[in-house]
Amino acid sequence: MAVLFNQHWDIRPGLTRAYSDFVMTYYNPTLATIGIKLVGGYYVTVGMGPRIIAVGLAENANDLEAALASAEFESITDRLMEFVTHYHSKILRPTGRIMTDGYKVQTGLWKLHQYWNIAPGVDKLRYADFVTRELVPGLKESGLEVTAGWRVVVGSGPYILGECSAPNLVDMARAIESDAYKAIMQKLLGEYVTDYHSRILAPTGRVDLPILLNEMMAQF
Q1: CB-count burial class (<10 Å; 0-12, 13-18, 19+) for 112
Q2: Which residues of 143-168 are buried (b: 16+ CB within 10 A; e: fewer)?
Q3: Could you give the dihedral angle defined by the CA atoms of residues 18, 21, 24 and 27, in that order, rounded to the nearest 10 degrees?
Q4: What is the C-alpha separation between 205 and 54, in angstroms, rounded?
Q5: What is the pLDDT of residues 179-214, one digit of tens each?
Q6: Are 198 and 113 contacting, i.e. CB atoms less than 8 angstroms apart?
Q7: Rounded to an integer, what distance in angstroms lies between the CA atom of residue 163 and that of residue 146?
């Protein structure tokens, strides 16, 4: 089962260019070498910081554990800390409530991340039925692509992450302002969950742009 490795940080003031060079030249390639496939890099435009979220994928928990225990990861992370602050990380696994055909890089898309805990006393089967029968269809009706559902297994909560996508900020805003979105969110927040917050994420280009360029070059 694939697992997600999310890292959160802010760039130290005055180091943006040096940070970008380091990430593109050293950090991202090192993670790929040790078995952590970067599938997204995002900047939080709306919601709580830290502002940068780097999303990595490993084939399974054992592969991720080996990568994180490697000398290469320790060394490159030490170097990363020269450029960033407010660092923390999370390991997540799929909830199994959202059907996906693998987890792929989505180039150029904006993301809506929604975080929550299941409210005390809520029956887990009733919650799961609501997610599959009402929440996911409601989000799709609003115009959002429901990408995945994750549960935090290592790291701070809230412990559920719902992930949606839209082509651009205008489409994201239109979906969030729709009647379908407001209705389903009112039911989610009113009956099923607590500790809710959300983030709107813009692609940084440091992960998806090289992939997009490679795909374009492959067609020549």
Answers
A1: buried
A2: bbbbbbbbebeeeeebbbbbbbbbee
A3: -50
A4: 11
A5: 999 999 999 999 999 999 999 999 987 654 444 334
A6: yes
A7: 6
| Rounded CA separation 191/78 (Å) | 44
Amino acid at 146: V
Q: What is the pLDDT of residues 24-70, one digit of tens each?
A: 999 999 999 999 999 889 999 999 999 999 999 999 999 999 999 99
Q: Are strands 84-94 and 145-154 parallel, antiparallel or unpaired?
A: antiparallel
Are 118 and 160 a contacting pair, CB within 8 Å? yes
Residue ranges of domains in the chain: 3-217
Q: pTM for the whole thing? A: 0.88
Task: Supply the DSSP symbol for 143.
Answer: T
Give me the sign of the Cα torsion angle 57, 63, 64, 66.
negative
Evaluate whether the domain defined by 3-217 bears CATH number 3.40.630.30: no
For residue 126, what are the contacts with CB-CB under 8 A and spacing of at least 6? none
Question: Is the bond preceding residue 158 a cis peptide, omega within 30 degrees?
Answer: yes
Q: What does the block give as tokens for 37?
A: 């496939």
Q: How far from the centroid of its chain's Cα atoms is residue 185's Cα?
A: 20
Token code pair at residue 103:
């987890």
Tell me the C-alpha to C-alpha distance, in Å, between residue 19 and each of 22, 58, 87, 184.
5, 24, 14, 40
